[in-house]
Amino acid sequence: MKRVIKILSVIFLIGILVSLIFWGKDTKQAKARTFSSDELLTKAQSALKQQDCTDAIAWSRQGLQSSPDYADIKIVMGRAFLLNGQPDSAEKIFLSAWHQQRPDADVLPFLVNIELSKGDTVTALDDIGHYLGLDPMDTSMWLKKYSLLLDRKNYVQASSLYRAFRTRFHSGAISAYSFRYWQESAQQQHRLGDLRAERAAWEQALYYQPSDTAALRSLALMALGSHDPVRARIYNERLLRTDSLNVETLLRQSGIESALHDDRRAAFYASKALQREPGNILLRRNVADTYLRAAKDASPQDRIRWAAEVLRLYPSNREALLYVINGHIALQEYAAALTTVNQALRYYPSDRELTDKKIGILYDSKNYTACASFLESILQKDTTAQYIRTYDDAELQIALAAIRSGDWSHALTAVQKGLSFRPDNKVLLEQELAIYDAEGSPTQALAVVDQLLLSGPADPVYLFKKAGLLEEEGDPQSAVAITSSLRYRYPDHPEYAKAYNNELLSVEIKAAKQGDWLTVLSTFHELGKEQKPDRLAWEYAISAYGQLHDTLQLIAFTDSALTSYPQDSFFMVKRSVAIELRNDYPGALTITRELLHRYPADTSLQKLYLDQLSVAGKFYEKDNRNDTALALFLEVHAVQPNDTFASENLSAIYFVKKQYDSSIAYAEMGLRIDSTNEFLLLKQASSYEELKEYSKAYASTKKLLALRSTHQLVEYGEYLKSKTYRNKIGITHLQSVFSSPAFASVTGLLYIHQTDKATFTGTLNFGDRNAGSGVQGGLDV
To answer: Is the pTM of this model over 0.90?
Structure first.
C-alpha cells in the first residue's frame, strides 16, 4: 500500500513541473507582445480578480509606463498592492491618482481604508468628506463616516450626521447600524465589567431600536441588579408590550412589582405567568407567595381577593385563610368571616389562633349565645383564664339583653352560668344583684351582696346596698347599724347620712305599725339629734303621742311641727283633735273650719268637722249650755240634714227648753229619714204629751211599742191611752200606819170629763182615821 502511494506522489509532482514549464513559456511570449493601455488594464483586472497580485501589479506597471495618468490602472494597481499586503505602496499609488490633474473620486474609498488600517481617522474623515462632496449619494460612505465619528466618540457630529442621513435617504439602515454599534459596545462593556458604560450603551441602542428585546431585557436585569426597580419596571413593561405572554418577563415583572411594594400588580403578573404554565409547581408556589405578599398590606377587600386566589390554588393554606378571615372582620362582614373560620377549623381543629378568631367574630357580631355555647365546649378541656373571661362577658351580654327586654328569668340564668366558672366575678355578681333587685327579691339580693363583701368586707358601696336591702327586708334596725358606721367613716358622703336618717325613719314607721309607740318616740328623738326631723317623722311621733293619749305632748308636738311646716293640713288636724280632747271645742272647730275652707271637697275633713260639732254639742248639752249646744246641732243639721243624730239632739234640746213644737218638728224630720228611730218616737210622744195631745202621743208610743215592748213603755202607753178618754172614773184607796198600830185609810172616787177646750176633774174622798172619819170633795177645771 505504501508503494502505491509513493508512485502516485511522483506522478503528481511530474505533472506540476510540466505545467510550470509551459506557463513560463506562455508568459514570456505574452510579455514579448505589445498591448494597449486598456488591454493592460483589462489584464491587470483579470489577474486581480484571480487574486494574482504579482501579475496584476506587473500589468499595471506596464500600463502606467505607456499611460502614466491612467487613474483606473492606478486604482487596480493600488488594490493589488493592498491584496498583496503592501499598504504603503498602495497608498502612494492611490495618492498619485488623487493628486493628478483630474482626480478620480473612486480612489478615495481605498485611501480611507488604508488610513483607517493605519489608525489615521482624522485623514480618513477628511477623505470621506472629499468623497461625499463628489458623490453625496453614497450611503456606504455616509455610514463609514458615521462609524468613524462614533469611534472617535464625536457624538455631536455623529448625531447631526444621523439626522441628515435619515432626512436625505429616509432609510432605516443607519438606525440598524447605530443599534449594532451600541449593542456591540454594550457587550464589550459587559465583558469588561463596566456596568455603568454597559447600561449607557444599551440605552443608546434602545434609542435606535426601541423594541429590541435583548436590550430591554439587559437593561431590566441591570436595573434590578442595581436595586432600581422603578427603572426595571419601565424596561420590563416595554418588553411586555412586545411579548405579553413571555413567562420569564411576566415573572420578572411580578418580582419588580414586589420590590416596589405593589403586591397587587405583582400578583397580577404572577397569575398571568401561571396561566401560561398551569402545571408548573414552582410557579404555582411562586404565585401563591406573591398573592400572600399582596394580601399582607392590602385593603380588606383586596386582602380577601388575593387570599382567595391562594385558596383556589391551596384550599388549606392557613395564612390565606387568616387573611380572608381578618379581611371580613375589618369590613365587619361577620357572617362571611365565621364561614371562613369554620372552614379553617376543619383543617386545623386545634389551632389556638383560629379558635380565638371564631370567639372574637361571634362576640364582635354580638352573637353572644353562639359565642357562649362555643366557649362552653372549649372550657370542657381548656379552662384558660382568657376563655373564662370571654365566656363571662358573653353571658353578661346575654343577661343585659334579657334585662333590657324585661326577661329577668333568662337574665338570671345567663348570669349564673357565667358564675359557674368564676363565682367571684364582681361584674356578674353585680348584675345578679341588679336582677334580684328588679324582681323584688331582697332575700336573694342580700345573699349576693354578702358574696360581694367576701372580697371586700369594708366596701362602702356594697355595705350601703346591704343596708338598703335590710331596710327593704323589714330590718331597718340592722340597716341603721351599717349606715351609722358609714356616715362616720365617710363624712364627705352626704348620701350615707341621708340613708341613716331614712332608715331611722323606717325604724320609726315599723315601730308605729307594730304599735311600739315608745320606740317611735325614741327613734324620733334620735333623728332630731342628726337633723331637723322631716315631716313623716313628725307625723309618726305625733301619732304616737295620740295613741299614748298624751294630749299635752300632742299639742306641743303639733305646735312644733307647724312651726316647721306651717299650714300643713295633717298637723292642723292633729292639733284640732288634741285641743278637742282637752275640751277646747271652739279652738278645734276654728282649725277644722279653716281646713274645710281650704279643702271644701275633703270628705274626711267634713266628717271630722261634723264629729267635732256633734261632740261639742253633746258636751255643752250635758253642761246645760243648751243654747250653745243648740247652735252647734243646728249647724250639723244644716250640713247633714239626713243624719238623724242631729235631729235627735235638736229634738231633745228643744224638749228641755220646753219648745215642744220645735222638738216635735225635728223628731218628725228624723223619723222621715228613719221611721223606726226609738229615741225620736219617744221624744215625739213626750212632746205631744206635754202639749196634752194625748192621741198623737199615744200614736207615737204605739209605733214605739211595735218596735220594742217593755213594761215601762207599756205602762206609759196605757197612761197616754187613758188620756185619750172623755169620761173617766177611778177609785183610789190609801191605807197607812203612822205612829200606832192602828190603820188609817182614805178612799176616793174620781171622775174626769174631757172636752176639746178643757178637762174637768171631780174628786170625793172618804177618810177613816183615829181622830175621826171625814169626807173631802173637789173640782178642778
So the answer is: no
